[in-house]
Amino acid sequence: MAIFASRYERKLPIDDTEAISCEIATVEEVDGHTEYLLRVQRGDNSWNVLHRYNDFNKLHQSLRISGIDLPLPGKRIFGNMRPDFIAERKEALQVYINTILMNPILASSLPAKRFVDPESYSQSFYDHAVQNAMLCLRNDSVWALGATMGAIGWRLRKHYFKVTTKPPEKSSNKLVKSGSQTQQSKHFAAGSNGGSHSISIDAGTADPNAEMVAEWLEYGPDKYVEEKEINGVLKSLVGLQHPHIESIVFAANTENGCLVIRKFHKHGTLKDVLCMATPKNPFLSKYGNPKGRTALSMKQVATYGKQILDALIFLHSKGYAYGHLHSGNIVIVDDCVKLLDVENHLLGVPAFYRPFFVQHSKIHAIETVDVYCFGHVLFEMAMGYPLQESVVRQITECPEALKSLLESILSKEACKAGLPTLEQLLGHRFFTQYATDCGSSAEKPHFKLSLNAKELLRQAAVKSEKRLCDEQKSVKNQKRIVRVQELMSSEEEKRKSKQKAKLEHKQSKLKQQGSLQTSNGRLSLAATTAASTSTAAVGGGLSTADSFNRSDSTPEEPPTLAGLKSQTTGGQTPRQELHTGSSASVSVERQTSTPNMASVEDVEAGDEDEPTRSALLESICKFNRGSLRKVRSND
Asked: Which of 85, 174, 325, 479 gets the most CB atoms within 10 Å of its CB?
């Protein structure tokens, strides 16, 4: 089977929880269709991806199972190559992809990961999981691998299978166990098992009516313990006993990952209870847009929280950290909490809340991570919905004791100053006021690690903390760069807006000056023309009748000219009349040299004497300057 199986190209482990940003940089036309160039960045790495609109549509169809309303722009058959339509669709698709990547449930899904990073997520994780799970169980005489249970969890590299017990082999030669052998409930098998090492509990001690589940999980980026040493720690984890930690029935590891068999609880995890979801449904349909939510009572919140703290303190006291606390890793059995996936810390996989605490440089120690994750679980149990931010803004509708406890963990000030220890949380007044004792359990806590294993785990914890600190510095630098870019863009926008305002003000001022000059020019021209007409009329009275016959038309005498003639005295000669007309013309020209005053007076006069002005303009238009003659004066 392994010879003809497709080879799985194992690359450097990728942190699937690391945030990804995507920007549609440009639009290209290829073979008559439009392709969008996506510039994707994860941490310090960046790459480009080309997608058509149909690729966005396929992604949308894959995410519809979540029940979340996503703003995908509609499809257009005609006019879809117009530049204005392409620009509008580009902006709409940017909003669409941002909506997906900002949602923790959608961003962690396999369709979204393959869309933005096809090179890293194009391989079949399921086929790889089946091959390794069958390899782990190949020489096991108890468990047989069954059908897959689907994507019921949030991890892309974790797969769930049904398992059944193999029927006993028929043999004529039966070996009878000695009394000392029957007392041993656990056995350890290692060696030439196809490169795998397995540890399991005797099938006789397991509940025959219980449904079992096999979980295959690949190693993560924080795996700093060698495969041989992992086998020894897994043996200790199989022997772990605690009333608030779910026991492991079988564990086996290869060079690629680990297979664990444990009991499957039909009521699901704490997250299934809070979301009122069916445990075997896909992760996207269960938690994408839950149909209902319910919160726990204060008594339950305090009791379950106290039990969780007891389990965490026990693990840390033995030199082993949990590091993966969230509501999906907790089950409630007979009003008693049990933690799942205690092996995740050993395998080096990233935590569920890592995108949140990576934003706070004070949260880097293993115990501090457990404290921070405990605050999120406490908030979700009390409110009925998860906290979608790294810090809590305002806490309402809860007792003062719970508010004080949550603020000591999830407030912005607490994340900056430092979080309390697990022991300090256990002594908080909230648990003394509301928690109840669930009674003494018959199962006594037991967990034994060798000194070598403790040292290996300590060194691995130091390395994982260093990687977390480096990532926190990178996130801080990215935030600083984003803020600088925002400031630069805002300053650029302010500068452009100021330049635009200055240009508009200048244009409006020039337009206003132009309109004033135009109106003043018209009024000055009218006054000058009127003065010239008066002079022409006086000179016309001295000429003979033959001179008027040269004109194309015979103008009528305007009322103003008649008034000028009536004002002349009988003793004046024509020369004196001409001189008087010239003086009047000069005076008119002097008056028109001040356009503002003339414009106001002319406008007021025009409003009062409109008919006279119309007659004057009509006579000016009909007047012929060719009829004027030069007159000599003796002055």
From this structure: 325
Contacts of 423 (CB under 8 A, 6+ apart): 313
What pLDDT, in 10s, does the model give residues 280-334? 999 999 998 888 889 999 999 999 999 999 999 999 999 999 999 999 999 999 8
Output the pTM of the full model: 0.72
- Cβ contact 111:55 at 8 Å: no
Overall average pLDDT of the 225-252 stretch: 92
DSSP one-letter code for 40: E
- Rounded CA-CA distance 567/99 in Å is 91
Query: By CB neighbour count within 10 A (0-12 exposed, 13-18 middle, 19+ buried), where does 457 fall?
Result: buried
The CA distance from 357 to 371, in Å, is 11
Give the whole-angstrom CA distance, residue 500 versus residue 347: 60
Closest residue by Cα to residue 338 from 364, 312, 373: 312
Per-residue pLDDT band for 342 (boundaries 50, 70, 90) equals very high
Give the contacts of 371 (CB within 8 A, at least 6 positions apart): 409, 419, 420, 421, 422, 425
Give the three-class secondary structure for 132. Answer: helix
Q: What is the Cα–Cα distance from 101 to 108, expressed in whole angstroms?
A: 8
The Cα 196–Cα 139 span in angstroms is 10
As a whole number of angstroms, the distance between CA 223 and CA 221 comes to: 6
Mean pLDDT on 17-41: 88
Containing 431, the helix (H) or strand (E) segment is: helix 429-434
For the record, the structure tokens of 286 come out as: 């269960």
Measured in whole angstroms, the distance separating CA 436 from the mean position of its chain's CA atoms is: 42
**pLDDT over threshold 50, residue 600:** no
DSSP 54-95: HHHHHHHHHHGGG-----PPPP-SSSTT-HHHHHHHHHHHHH
CA distance 574 to 540: 11
> Using an 8 Å Cβ cutoff, are 270 and 331 in contact?
yes
Which pair of structure tokens corresponds to residue 412? 């912005």
Beta bridge partners of 193: 196
Q: pLDDT band for 201, please (50, 70, 90 cuts).
A: low
What's the token pair of residue 340? 């799942």
Note the pLDDT tens digit of each residue in 147-182: 999 999 999 999 999 998 888 765 444 444 444 333
Q: Residue 356: helix, strand or coil by DSSP?
A: helix
Render pLDDT for 100-111 as a digit per residue (tens, 0 to 9). 999 989 999 999
10 Å Cβ neighbour count for 178?
A: 8
Amino acid at 213: V
Q: Which residues, at least 6 apart from 329, have a Cβ–Cβ distance to it below 8 Å?
A: 269, 339, 340, 341, 352
The alpha carbons of the chain give a radius of gyration, in whole angstroms, of 46
